[in-house]
Amino acid sequence: MRAVVPVRGPVGAGAWRMYATRAGADTQAPKQAQRRGRDRPRRLLPRGPLPPYREWLKGDGERFRYPAPGNGPHWIGATPFPLNPAFHPPPPVHQGVRDDMWKLHTQDPQQWTVRSLSNKFRLSLERTESVLRLKALEEEFVQEGKPLQTELQRHMERLLGARPSFTVEPRPVPTSTPHSPRGAPYEELPEGTNTSVCTDY
């Protein structure tokens, strides 16, 4: 009897190592082992022909063509990606909320830091930072005369369920008390502040 063992690594994916346990064993084993996985025909899902797009829009697709405003995402299935049912994306931050965040931050950057904006609008610190970075980039584009895709953005917000009010994320920013055993919470300091002198006595 011969045993067939696939060899992985630098030898190659199609390499086989054989050793005999008795004389005169069958030498067809490697070909049969290869056929089991690679040459097996794929099973296709039984599916009839799809109707043309315009017919689908008049039938099942009518409810997706003009969705009611404010009802959230409108996907054909339960999730946007049927092969990844665990993926449930949060709705995007509405343009009005982003404008308010940018307005507050540009009026008084010392008061409206990333952390304070995150607390006020109930967004994560990372998401707040990215909103401010994108708003700064948007302002640069406007100054350079580059066009913005505001129509696409407006329609995507409508389809993905963005709300003009504050967006509540599943895990809000944790608040810490000033008498925490770990010390005062980290806050951004204005430039030029001398941090070598401690004044908290």
UniProtKB/TrEMBL annotation:
Biased composition (Basic residues): 33-45
InterPro entries in the record: Ribosomal_mS45
Gene Ontology BP, a term: mitochondrial translation
One example GO MF annotation: structural constituent of ribosome
A GO cellular-component term linked to this record: mitochondrial small ribosomal subunit
Region named Disordered: 21-52, 166-201
Superkingdom of this protein's organism: Eukaryota
Pfam families per the UniProt record, alphabetical: Bot1p (PF12298)
Compositionally biased tracts (Polar residues): 192-201
PANTHER family: 37S RIBOSOMAL PROTEIN S35, MITOCHONDRIAL, SMALL RIBOSOMAL SUBUNIT PROTEIN MS45
Protein name: Uncharacterized protein
Lineage: Eukaryota, Fungi, Dikarya, Basidiomycota, Ustilaginomycotina
